[in-house]
Amino acid sequence: MSLYEVPITKLSGIGEKRAALFAKLGIRSVGDMITYYPRSYSDWSNITNIADIQPETTCVVKARVMTPVNSIRISGGRIMSKLSVADDSGYLNLVFFNNKYISSMLRFGETYVFMGKVTRDRYGFQMTSPEFNKLNDQTEITPVYHLTAGLNNHMMIRAAKEALSMLPELIRDPLPYDIQKHYDLCPLSYALHHIHFPSDNLSMEKARRRLVFEELLTLNLGMRLMKSQSKEQTAIRMPEDFTKSFIKNLPFELTGAQQRAVTDCVNDMRHKINPMNRLIQGDVGSGKTAVCAAVCWQTVKSGYQAAFMAPTEILAQQHYETFLKMFEGTGIRIDLLIGSMTVSEKRKIRARVETGESDIVIGTHALVSESTVFARLGCAITDEQHRFGVAQRARLASKGEHPHVLVLSATPIPRTLGLIIYGDLDITIIDELPPGRTEVDTFLIGSDKRDRALGFLKKQVDEGRQCYIVCPLVEESEGVDELQNANDYAADLMLGPFRDISVGILHGKMKTKDKERVMARFAANEISVLVSTTVVEVGVDVRNATVMMIENAERFGLSTLHQLRGRVGRGEHKSYCILVSDNSGENTEQRLGVMCRTNNGFEIADMDLKLRGPGDFFGSRQHGLPQLAIADFSDTETLAQSQDAAELILQISPDLSNEALRPLKAKIRRLFETTENTMN
Ligand code: ADP
Ligand code: MG
């Protein structure tokens, strides 16, 4: 039996309740635990004397507990625990948040090794929420895992250890032996053990390289297989070009780039043997919707239906309204299908789709549900495609007989890497904004200027405009949760500078429905200032919003900042982006400086890649690819090798039917299944 079929509850100390926490991290089985790789490692061997500690650094100290643990309740119902430890050179204060067990874990008079970030306040040095180990069960390099509230690193380490011990002596290695040998890769078993518990840096690197290679190879093969599948289909032919008449009736003239995009699509639909399979990449506000409307027109005029899928209800609704206007008087029948409609409404719409009464259907993933059947789907379009998985896109397409497929994306991917990411798609880039768009003025300020900035926001609101504020990001270790933090932040505003202003909150932990309600109220200008924790819903067009203020701007990637900034400057009003950051590191200033200097998404993406390295860039999971467990494209050499290997393998066995490739094939299937689960 595969360890992927052994539930995580088989591990000691993991009951149903704790299993639910593991599930939050995507770990449901023992196999999942084994492939839940550490995000980094702690090196416990480098011990610092307390007297030599530098503030604002992470360090390891070996120290004795000198006081009992003193716990008090602080604001927000949180518990703060304090104690003092010492080594021969001095004293250090430790602080923990919301950890009821600290007093039983750290015993008075005993010595432990602590690792954490040290700060200085008026009482001296302080280490906040350090990790610690008993002096004796000390390994040198320990794994550090991504956690969720309720699970600490110790529990993860224990689970990983036990899970690894359940691996059979001989495990089936998905990498054929020849490939392993040719690329000098260690066997899977070695890799799995050493990625969690490396004996030294070298073994960790070896393990990592092997796992990255395997994952990139899997990804590569999967993308190539998908492309070759779509190659085998015959396209619906649309002999005529109908778009001219549609474009003539638009209230604006298409930009050159929009025109080229329409032409690319129409050429695909008219002349290609295989269905269109195209990605249109265009910066926020570049007018992808109009291009997509032209493609829908082409489809309907050729006698087929078009489907247009958006990631959220509010976006779908907005597209629906835009389309109603654009297609007014044409006789083309447009319908909206979203999850929150009543059952009978949905049934009515689905009946119209099935009988062919509706020509264009716009909706959310309700469109891909089994009960949606199309009479003659000719073109399937997905908006903001990075929010959907590759699999979902495929599912929409499966609603017709090899319909044409178009995906729209506002996430600029550096050209050099587009090929890998969108290996299965042809790409059109819209690199021009509609005329008359004024650039968003961007400013970088320190938090000492925050009050002035808030005063500026208030003035904008007084003039009838609306503002977004992305509030500070918090990390779990800081003992504050995301929701609490957003609420506190908004409360401060509502009690202070924004007393007379309607403030709304949007955070990642809200139910989708509630989120959409808040967004809808913002869109209707019932909320003037929207405080949000994570990313403001992508693509929503609130033309009246003129200020985007982002706290802790240094914690975001440039591409995310650019996306956020794209929420403003969509109407006729002059718009502003205010980045708040106290981090004065050289890299930070350089990065945020780029934002102030340019509004060009591609330039920013290229810069982002250069300054942060591709690891972080792709780490943000903004591209609709399967979620990778370990690879991050930063190792271009391994990437190139895995591409070679993929080609080699497909030459030998184009459909991977070769017996030796069975485990690899299973891996591909699993990797692409995960895309479906990452939605929302
Ligand atoms: P995105 O590419 O981000 O989806 P949209 O399609 O939402 O951008 O377009 C942004 C705004 O620009 C819309 O209000 C749209 O009506 C307008 N627009 C699109 N194309 C043009 C154009 N060629 N000239 C003027 N305005 C345009
Ligand atoms: Mg859009």
Q: Separation of termini?
A: 32 Å
> What percentage of the residues does DSSP assign to strands (E)?
15-25%
**Count of helical stretches:** 23
Query: What is the architecture of the largest domain at the second tier of CATH?
Result: 3-Layer(aba) Sandwich
Number of domains: 5
CATH homologous superfamily classification of the largest domain:
P-loop containing nucleotide triphosphate hydrolases
What kind of sheet is the major sheet? 7 strands, parallel
Q: What ions, cofactors and ligands are bound?
A: adenosine-5'-diphosphate, magnesium ion
Taking all residues together, what is the mean pLDDT? 86
Low-confidence stretches: 614-624, 675-680
> What is the CA-atom radius of gyration, in angstroms?
27 Å
Global morphology: globular
CATH-defined fold name of the largest domain: Rossmann fold
- Global structural class: alpha/beta
The CATH class of the largest domain turns out to be: Alpha Beta
Strand order of the largest sheet: 11-12-10-13-14-9-15
How much helical structure, as a percent, in the residues? 25-40%
Task: Count the E strands.
Answer: 21
Give a concise summary.
The chain is an alpha/beta fold and 680 residues long. It is built from 23 helices and 21 strands.
Task: Give the SSE map.
Elements lengths: L15 H9 L5 H5 L5 E4 L13 E9 L4 E5 L3 E10 L2 E8 L4 H4 L5 E11 L2 E11 L6 E4 L8 H13 L11 H6 L5 H9 L4 H31 L11 H6 L7 H16 L5 E6 L5 H14 L3 E5 L3 H14 L7 E4 L5 H13 L4 E4 L13 E6 L7 H8 L6 E6 L5 H7 L4 E5 L10 E5 L4 H13 L3 E5 L11 H14 L7 E4 L5 H12 L5 E4 L12 E6 L7 H8 L10 E5 L5 H12 L3 H12 L1 H6 L16 H17 L9 H16 L3
Parallel strand pairs: 5-7, 9-14, 9-15, 10-12, 10-13, 11-12, 13-14, 16-21, 17-19, 17-20, 18-19, 20-21
Antiparallel strand pairs: 1-8, 2-4, 2-6, 3-4, 4-5, 6-7
The site of adenosine-5'-diphosphate has 16 residues, from helix 10.
